[in-house]
Design goal:
By secondary structure, this protein is α+β, with helices and mostly antiparallel strands. It contains three helices and two strands; from the N terminus they run αββαα. A two-stranded antiparallel sheet has the order 1-2. The structure holds zinc ion. Zinc ion binds next to strand 2 and helix 2.
């Protein structure tokens, strides 16, 4: 269970803590359009997501990923 004493993804990055030490349910800021696809850090490209979803989405676009997670479509 993630507690408030555990590092957020941003804190971990700042403190150079390995990503796998950030708890899976910790809140992260996700880039809706991936940075690899040219998405920027503007407010309208960011959403809160747990670390698990943030890292599991991979190349899938956010709407498809969300629809799969909500059971609206099958993978
Ligand atoms: Zn999630």
């Amino acid at each position: 269970m993630a507690g408030l004493d555990t590092p957020s993804a941003a804190e971990a990055k700042r403190l150079n803590i390995p990503k796998n030490q950030v708890p899976n349910r910790r809140v992260t800021l996700e880039h809706l359009q991936r940075r690899a696809d040219g998405g920027g850090g503007n407010r309208d490209n960011l959403a809160v997501a747990c670390k698990g979803c943030n890292s599991a989405r991979g190349r899938t676009d956010w709407l498809t990923y969300k629809s799969i997670q909500m059971g609206e479509i099958s993978p």
